[in-house]
Amino acid sequence: MKQGLQNKKVQYLLITLGIIVLTIASNLYLQWSQNGYEIDLVWKFAFSWHTEKFFLGCFILLVFLLFLCCLAGSIMTGSLMYAVTIVVLGFADYQKLFYRAEPVYPDDLKMITELGLMREMIGDVPFFLILIITVVAIAFFCWGIYKSLFLPKKVQMIRVTGLILTVGLLSYISNFNSPNNLFRKEFDKTASWIPYSQQMNYYNNGFIGGFLYNLKVDPMAKPKNYSKEKIAEITKKYIVKSQGNQTVTSEKPNIIFIMSESFSNPQNLNGVKADKNPLANYYDVADKTYSGKMLSQNYGGGTANIEFEALTSFSMELFNPQMTTPYTMLVPKMKEIPSIVSLLKEQDYQATAIHPYNTSMYKRKDVYNKLGFDRFIDETTIKYTSRTEYNPYISDKSAYQEVLDRLENESNPQFVHLVTMQTHMPYSGKYVNLDYSSTSKGNKASIDNFMQDVFYSSKALKEFTEVLKKVNRRTLVVFWGDHLPGIYSDEIKKDNEEVSMHETEFLIFDNQGKLEGQNKHDNITSPFYFAPTLFKKSGLQTTGFYQLLSELSTQVPAFEKGFYYKDNQWSKDLKLNKKQEELYEEYRMIQYDIVAGEKYSLKTNFFKE
Q1: Which residues contact 244 (CB under 8 A, 6 or more apart)?
Q2: Where are the domains of the chain?
Q3: Is 229 helix (H, G, I), strand (E, B) or coil?
Q4: What tens digit of pLDDT does each residue of 92-123 get?
Q5: What InterPro entries does the annotation carry (predicted)?
Q6: Rounded to whole angstroms, how far apart are CA atoms 606 and 608?
Q7: Residue 352 three-state SS
């Protein structure tokens, strides 16, 4: 009997050691993935530079592991599910860092059902390998849960107690950003949070620290002087200013927003040269109208955030850094959010969103409904579905034809918001022959393929604007690229200022030619300025909100976290004079009022006139 007790003690000891080793190894693996598979960096992070944070992360992983073991009723089954989860998470983090230069956020886990997109991003072989392993692990885990129902009563009591404790702990950990959270306080003792760069934030504080930092949080910090009276003062001030503009026209032109996937000029970057310009057709249009460079929040991704800024005229820079994706984290929870859609709907416009892809990406179906679009045309409902050669995405030419149908078939003025897909990654295997050849520092094949992509996109845009000239109703177009493609080598990135990796092309086109002669090549803007700039340049009646933004744009023409353009130069920090600060703070006050405050401004006509 003593021998049996001794064997059980040894068994329990081995299980305990195994669990500890597994949690430490898994945290090392996550950090290894975060650091680009550099073993030396991982070792120094864990046992030299940031030991306290590393073992805090290990404890949190231990809680998660024990939760899975209790849920499955088996240490072996729970550990297997845990291992698969960590391996997939680490791989996803490495891939996202490689393509988009940003880590995996908690909110990214909502994208787990986007199997088609994941397959495109990582390739067929890794995708199907991960899918098979995950399906097998889940099946085994579910079988384990079923078997656990027949465990002895004593074991069940231990299991349920463990489950209650771990669920409670995980729930508490999920409130990491609450002021009095003990785990946050422990991290704060040694953490060096870097809000403006989540990549560095994860690097300095560990994958677990960075991941927890990006859990749920209030959208914005409350401005110091926020009150009903202050909002009333701001709204009245700018409503009066907007109504004082006597030069506006009462016409209702068609308005078209086109966000072109990854549209940008590779030759804007040092280290990239081509035998000819793939954007020649684009510049044929841009050089005759108001155009320039747009500051994108992200490199290699972040499409939904740029779209959010363009439609709402609210800035990502003003949000808390953990508010990484408003489309999934904020908008669906709001009862009402003012935007160019809601403004034009007040003026009897028909509003159509077109995205020739699936409806679940970034919860677009819910978001577009919340914004007030009358209809959403996706890849299953679009009439024109032609693709170019072997490109898996519906072509820009087809998407533009869908837009033209909206203009022809409706008697009301139209607002059409198009998000294209033709130039989306991957950038290989789409075309039999490439008409462009680059001289570049690394990744030449992807760059050459991308240039072929943007050539077709440029050509389609030029043809589209030529057809628009025949449309009777005045038609205004705002066209922009959402971000650069994540294809440029480290050598190219080193040869360029960081802001150069965030600059895309934009233009505003008028089919009646009323914007001709406004083509200053040095225009620099942010997407949240598009709507107020369009209204001002086109002579349309602005709102109080757009009046505020127009005045701010003359002082601070472009800004995102870490990139501020004012006084004709870029800076990493926001340093404002008195006038600039007053405008910036008024804008921040209004945005807070809508996304996190009492929405006092919605009870006025600030967003309507």
Answers
A1: none
A2: 2-213, 228-603
A3: helix
A4: 999 888 877 778 888 888 777 777 767 776 77
A5: Alkaline_phosphatase_core_sf, OpgB/LTA_synthase_biosynth, Sulfatase_N
A6: 6
A7: strand
Q: Are 106 and 329 in contact (CB under 8 A)?
A: no
Q: Where do runs of H (alpha helix) occur along 480-555?
A: 490-494, 530-538, 544-555
pTM for this model (two decimals): 0.80
Question: What residues pair up with 353 in beta bridges, in sequence order?
Answer: 376, 417
CA 269 to chain centroid: 23
Best CA proximity match to 58, nearest among 30, 24, 15? 24
What is the H or E stretch that residue 449 is in?
helix 444-468
Residue of 349, 480, 468, 368 whose CA lies nearest to 415? 349
How does strand 414-419 pair with strand 254-260? Answer: parallel
Rounded Cα distance, 334 and 410, in Å: 30
Q: Are 442 and 492 in contact (CB under 8 A)?
A: yes
Structure tokens at 375: 């209809």
- Environment class of 190 (CB within 10 Å of its CB; exposed 0-12, middle 13-18, buried 19+): middle
Which residue has 């550990």 as its token pair?
79
Report phi then psi at 607, rounded to 5.
-95, 5
Please provide the average confidence, as pLDDT, over all residues in the chain. 91
As a whole number of angstroms, the distance between CA 575 and CA 292 comes to 24
Lookup result for tokens 């209809």 = 375
Distance CA 293, CA 271 (A): 19
The distance in angstroms from the start CA to the end CA of the chain is 87
| CATH architecture for residues 228-603 | 3-Layer(aba) Sandwich (3.40)
446-505 pLDDT per residue, tens: 999 999 999 999 999 999 999 999 999 999 999 999 999 999 999 999 999 999 999 999
CB neighbourhood size of 109 (10 A): 10
Is residue 420 helix, strand or coil?
coil
